[in-house]
């Protein structure tokens, strides 16, 4: 079994690690193009062209499924990628976990890139799945870039700035960018208020990984031997995991689980 994942950069690590936990024997392909990051400020046409290139590089490895582990690419490029690659290659997009976060009502915040915050796409998800929850959209300028480069000081600044915009009575936070999942603990620590119930964080990696297995008719087998190889593509060329990836637990899980080729 071979599962490919794509993103502009290392935001795909969380979903890749989730696949590795469910199927340690699955071969993984990580396809990215960090030289073109960030994708958010680009026009939809430019972003779609870049995402298609990254998807084609992944598809050339002949995977059984392709996960678009990027919220922005899923918003703008998912239809084009599916039109080109399906039905031969199942393509799974990433959607912010607004529905489960809002199910309990109360105050909910969605942390997302400035390009996604306030977008018709996100507003449509809120209208469809927000229910009775009071949903606050929180832009997080610079956070994805800081995570991409493993810049600890910049991560702290961006998280603190977003936390300051988050309502003090927030019950749940939706991580609306896959990069944010890599610093989920830091986000929780910054937003949790003394005396408040434990903050719920809602990410997408686990659900996306499970959906990929369902699409190809595979069952989770977390006790399987960690035999699946790891192929890293950057701008279509075979490369090593970047050093920044190894600063996160998800990157270390992938590096330790099987030989990188």
From TrEMBL:
InterPro entries with a match to the protein in the record: Asp/Glu/hydantoin_racemase (IPR015942), Asp/Glu_race (IPR001920), Asp/Glu_racemase_AS_1 (IPR018187)
Protein name: Glutamate racemase
Pfam families in the record: Asp_Glu_race
Lineage: Bacteria, Bacillati, Actinomycetota, Actinomycetes, Kitasatosporales
Keywords, sorted A to Z: Isomerase
PANTHER family in UniProt: GLUTAMATE RACEMASE (PTHR21198:SF2)
Source domain of life: Bacteria
Family matches, as SUPFAM superfamilies: Aspartate/glutamate racemase (SSF53681)
